[in-house]
UniProtKB/TrEMBL annotation:
SMART domains: AAA. InterPro entries: AAA+_ATPase, ABC_transporter-like_ATP-bd, ABC_transporter-like_CS, ABC_transporter_ATP-binding, P-loop_NTPase. The lineage of its organism: Bacteria, Bacillati, Chloroflexota, Ktedonobacteria, Ktedonobacterales. It comes from the Bacteria. It comes from Dictyobacter aurantiacus. PANTHER family: ABC TRANSPORTER ATP-BINDING PROTEIN, ABC TRANSPORTER ATP-BINDING PROTEIN NATA. This is ABC transporter ATP-binding protein.
Amino acid sequence: MIQKQDASSSALSPPVAPIIKVERLVKRYKKAETNAVNEISFSVRPGSLFSLLGPNGAGKTTTISILTTTLQPTSGSVMIADYDISRQASAVRKNIGIIFQKPSLDLNLTAEENVRFHATLYGLYPFRPSYKTMPKGYQQRIDELANVLEIREDLFKPVKKFSGGMMRKLEILRSLLHNPRVLFLDEPTTGLDPSSRRSLWEYLSKVRLEQQTTIFLTTHYLEEAEKADDICIINKGNIVAHGTPAQVKAELVEEYVLLDADDRASLLAELRRLDLSVGEQVPFKVSLAHDRLHSVLKAIETPLTLIETHLPSLEDAYMEIIGK
C-alpha cells in the first residue's frame, strides 16, 4: 500500500490535526461471511480535496454512510471535526454537508422553499411562512451563497424547471447553509452533461476557496479524482492504495517512451550504451521517467523517426490495482 509522507510533519511546521480521522474501521453486515469494510485507516487534512475510489461493491458506500452517521460501524473509530461519529453523531451532523448521488429536492417547491425547510429541519432557524419573514441572518446567508453559485435570479423559481446542473448547485447551496467544515459529495456529477460537470466543478472550487471547506469525494469519473490532494482506493473492503495522484501513478504504472529509427541497429546500440532498459521489439520501448527524457534524446545521435511518450493516468493506475 502506498503511504503518503506528510510534509506537515517537518520540523519547520507543526503537524496539522486531521479534520477526518479513521482508525481500523470495520463493518460486517448480518449473515455476511466477510467484512464490507475491513480495518481501514486514513486521515483527511482540513481544507483539502480527498477522493475515495473503488468499483461497485468495494466498500465506498458503506464507508461514506458510516462517516455521515447514517450507518453504525461494527468496530473501529471515526473522528470528524474532533467529534466521535458514534458517541457524538448530532455534533458531527452539524459540521458536515452531504450531496447524495441522486437529487433529494422537492420538485414542487421553489429553490428557496427547499432551502428554508432544510434550514428549519437542521434547527438553524425557526420556520417562517415566507422568505421575507425569515430572520435577516438567513436572508443574508442565502444571498451570499446564491451569489457565489450564481443562482440568485432562480431562487424563487420551481425546482421542477431546473436543469440537472442547476439542481446540483441548489443542493450545494443547501448543504453549505450551516457552514459545514466537511462537504461529502457522493458521485455529484452522475447524469450531468460535460458542460454542466465542468461548471459544477468550477463552482465547487470557488466554494472551497471562499468557504475553506474540506471536500470528501466519491466518483466514477477518474479525471475528477486527478484534481484531489489525496486519493484512497478501496477494493473488497481493503485500502489498496493511498497517496497523492502522482504517488499512486508513479508507484503502480510505468512511464516509458517508444523510439524508432531507420537505422534500428545503431539506435539499439546507443540505447544500450546509455544503460537503458530496452528490448528488441520495435518500436523500442524504453522505461524512462519523464524528467530524464530530454537528456536522453539529446544524447542520441541516430536520427529518430518516432518519439512517443506514455505518461500514466490515474485511470491506468486504477485499472492496474483493480485488475490485480
